[in-house]
């Protein structure tokens, strides 16, 4: 069974303002750093993201979306696939990459029970995220440096241990932390230079600072 999470941000045009006491334009300069902010920088950002194995059964559904969703400016759309290893078809994964989709990590094992993921160590997370990154690089022939996103299995991270592994692996962003409090407008993606800033819906959430690593808060629809 594949889980589908479409992450949608409806964003209206607003002047950006800096409201965080501990994060401001002095200590956080774009594009390397971005404060958590509920006033979006004047755009609409929609992520179409799918979790799990890319299989023959589903492939035509993905290409159908790819061929039929066009951005308002006429440019073709892309999707993000958070891939795990079991049943994943690496040839089809390469095809989706070749068609300009983003291929990201969702762990090697995706093991159950889901609650176990809250207690995994840095080295276990390094094996899980780094393992699927290696597998995708090797078997789907995707440059390792382009596999830079992570989503925790069942959206259950272990907070700092997950982010420390991501940092060690050079990952660029996480997409595992939903928001239910900040939905109108939703939070724009931000970096963890000043730590995790929005409400923690699935604890544990990271407590340390991770300069340059983004989190993409999401609303499941
Ligand atoms: C930015 O934050 C730092 C640390 O909290 C503070 O010392 C500084 O005065 C702030 N700067 C502005 C422009 O608000
Ligand atoms: C992918 O296949 C699974 C199992 O057949 C199905 O439950 C799921 O809805 C499919 N996903 C899409 C996007 O069609
Ligand atoms: C997925 O593709 C299959 C085979 O083409 C089709 O029968 C099914 O309706 C599609 N599902 C969705 C959700 O588009």
From TrEMBL:
Record carries keyword Signal: yes
Keyword Nucleotide-binding: no
UniProt cross-references to InterPro entries, sorted A to Z: CE4, Glyco_hydro/deAcase_b/a-brl
An annotated GO BP: carbohydrate metabolic process
Signal peptide: 1-21
Keywords assigned by UniProt, alphabetized: Signal
Protein name: NodB homology domain-containing protein
């Amino acid at each position: 069974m594949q889980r589908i999470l479409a992450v949608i941000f409806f964003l209206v045009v607003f002047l950006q303002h800096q409201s965080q006491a501990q994060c401001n334009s002095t200590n956080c300069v774009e594009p390397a750093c971005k404060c958590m902010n509920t006033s979006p920088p004047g755009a609409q950002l929609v992520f179409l993201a799918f979790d799990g194995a890319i299989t023959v059964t589903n492939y035509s559904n993905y290409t159908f979306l790819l061929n039929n969703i066009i951005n308002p400016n006429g440019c073709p759309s892309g999707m993000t696939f958070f891939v795990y290893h079991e049943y994943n078809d690496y040839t089809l994964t390469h095809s989706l990459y070749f068609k300009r989709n983003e291929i990201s990590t969702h762990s090697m094992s995706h093991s159950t029970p889901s609650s176990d993921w809250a207690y995994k160590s840095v080295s276990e997370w390094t094996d899980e995220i780094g393992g699927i990154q290696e597998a995708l690089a090797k078997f789907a022939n995707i440059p390792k440096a382009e596999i830079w996103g992570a989503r925790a299995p069942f959206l259950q991270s272990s907070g700092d241990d997950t982010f420390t592994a991501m940092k060690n692996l050079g990952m660029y962003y996480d997409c595992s932390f939903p928001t239910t409090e900040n939905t109108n407008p939703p939070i724009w993606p931000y970096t963890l230079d000043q730590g995790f800033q929005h409400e923690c819906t699935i604890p544990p959430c990271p407590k340390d600072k991770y300069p340059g690593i983004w989190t993409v808060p999401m609303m499941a629809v």
